[in-house]
Amino acid sequence: MIAAALAVAAGNAMAVEISPATTPADANMVDVATLAPGFVLDMRYATTDNFTGRVVPGYEAPRCYLLQPVAQALARVQNALRAQGYTLQLFDCYRPAHSVKSFVAWAHDLSDQQAKARYYPNVDKSRLLDGYIAETSGHSRGATLDLGLLQCRQGDCQPLDMGTGFDRFDPLAHTASPDITAAQQHNRRLLLDAMGAEGFANYPMEWWHFTFKPEPTPDTAYDFPVR
Q: Which residues form the signal peptide (predicted)?
C-alpha cells in the first residue's frame, strides 16, 4: 500500500520523530524471511513493477524488515497458513521515510501518467493526494505491511484472486467492497482472519494493508535504506 485513503483513520496523521537508527539492528528490526520458511517476496518498490514505474528511492534490495515482535507475529501467521496449504506473498514492509516523500513528489508530477491504466484508471491523478497518498506512512514505523495470499499445491503456488491487484487506487480495493465476487470475498476473508488471529488489523480501504496492534513504536519512524 501506499499510505492509504483517509490517513487519519489509517493512523498515519500522528506526529512522529525520525529515529537516528541507520541499520535494521539499530531499530530492532529483523528480516522476516529468516523467521519462517516459504514467504514469497514480491517487493514491488525494489523493482520497476509499481505505480511509479521506477525503483523507489530507499529500496536497494527486495527484503521485508519489521520490528521484531511484528516479524515474529507474521512468522506465526505464515506457519499457520502453510499448514493449510497457503503462503504469504509480501509486497511491502518497512518503508523508509524518504521513500514516502518520493511518492508525494511523484503524485505532484501530473505529467507522469504511465501507470494510470493499471493503478488508478477511475481516479484523476490530481486527486491522489486527497486521500490515497499521505505525507507520512505507518510503514515507516516498522509495524505495517502489504501482502497477499497464495495457494500452494504440489510445490506450485498461485495467487488467490482478491478482486484487484496490489496498490489499486479504487473502491474495488476496499476490503468489504460489495462489487467483487463471492469467491474474491472469501479469499479476502481468509487473509483477514489469518492476520487478525495474530494481532494484525486491516485498513478497510485496502485489502492488502495490515498493521500490528498495539504498535511497538507508534511515535517513531525510521529512515535507513532497505538493503
A: 1-15
